[in-house]
């Protein structure tokens, strides 16, 4: 069997990982992709580590049944809490969500970088740890945003319902010397225009999905697993609930005719 023709798997607790899918398709247009959004058990940001481990194992069993050649975790919370343990449990490369530190460092003039993420990702201080390892001179401002992912998941991409909490989360960051901000949750690029408007261009925003797409490219190259088909790859979106809403949000990023949507059961 030619393993290069096998699909890439990407998953998230909901629709956030679609922002990763979008970047990956731009960089690797010939790859076939299977996306799993666990919309039935979303959000993961308020779950325990034990619950997240169990849910992620369910997803990886599904991915294994689809004969994927690689899986990318499009979820910062999963990456921050259970990724190291899961790496040893699957027979294919498993890539955690990138932190975006390298890109943010290049952009930041003053070396003070904000991170907007779920409570659990912030509690793990994963971005602070990555920054300290990469460049101890960087200062990381951590800002938990407990309401945003859930609101985006329910389709609130504009209006007062999403603007009010966003203003609340931005306010303390704008009182600091931060000039660059990382989206530490893959849901947040859906509302990047709102972040930019409310910050009044005081912050440059970094979507780590680009770094992750580059890492996937490198891993596939080294393993000689790049799909060399000349035609565009397929995109299959699988959700555990609310498939219609998942498809609607996907269409904010990807033309409708370029993907199919289905409901799946993981347990």
UniProtKB/TrEMBL annotation:
Substrate binds at residues 12-13, 44-45, 76-77, 186-187. One of its GO terms (biological process) is peptidoglycan biosynthetic process. Its EC number is 5.1.1.3. It comes from the Bacteria. Gene3D superfamilies: 3.40.50.1860. The active site is at residues 75, 185. Pathway: Cell wall biogenesis; peptidoglycan biosynthesis. GO terms for molecular function: glutamate racemase activity. It holds the Pfam family Asp_Glu_race. It is an enzyme of class 5 (isomerase). The keyword Isomerase applies. It catalyses: L-glutamate = D-glutamate. The keyword Magnesium does not apply. Keywords: Cell shape, Cell wall biogenesis/degradation, Isomerase, Peptidoglycan synthesis. Provides the (R)-glutamate required for cell wall biosynthesis. Belongs to the aspartate/glutamate racemases family. This is Glutamate racemase. The gene is murI.
């Amino acid at each position: 069997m030619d393993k290069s023709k096998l699909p890439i798997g990407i998953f998230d607790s909901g629709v956030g990982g679609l922002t990763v899918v979008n970047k990956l398709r731009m960089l690797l247009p010939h790859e076939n992709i299977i996306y799993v959004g666990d919309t039935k058990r979303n959000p993961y940001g308020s779950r325990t580590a034990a619950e997240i481990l169990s849910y992620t194992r369910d997803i990886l069993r599904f991915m294994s049944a689809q004969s994927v050649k690689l899986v990318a975790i499009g979820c910062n919370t999963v990456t921050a809490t259970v990724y190291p343990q899961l790496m040893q449990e699957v027979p294919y490369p498993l890539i955690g969500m990138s932190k975006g530190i390298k890109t943010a460092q290049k952009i930041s003039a003053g070396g003070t970088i904000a991170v907007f993420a779920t409570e659990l990702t912030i509690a793990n201080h994963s971005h602070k740890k990555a920054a300290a390892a990469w460049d101890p001179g960087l200062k990381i401002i951590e800002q938990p945003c407990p309401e945003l992912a859930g609101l985006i998941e329910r389709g609130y991409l504009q209006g007062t319902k999403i603007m009010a909490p966003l203003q609340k989360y931005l306010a303390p960051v704008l009182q600091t010397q931060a000039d660059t901000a990382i989206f530490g949750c893959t849901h947040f690029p859906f509302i990047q225009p709102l972040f930019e408007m409310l910050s009044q261009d005081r912050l440059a925003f970094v979507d780590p999905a680009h770094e992750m797409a580059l890492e996937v490219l490198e891993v596939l190259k080294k393993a000689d697993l790049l799909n060399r088909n000349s035609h565009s790859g397929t995109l299959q979106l699988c959700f555990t609930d609310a498939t219609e809403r998942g498809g609607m949000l996907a269409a904010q990023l990807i033309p409708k005719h370029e993907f199919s949507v289905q409901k799946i059961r993981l347990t």
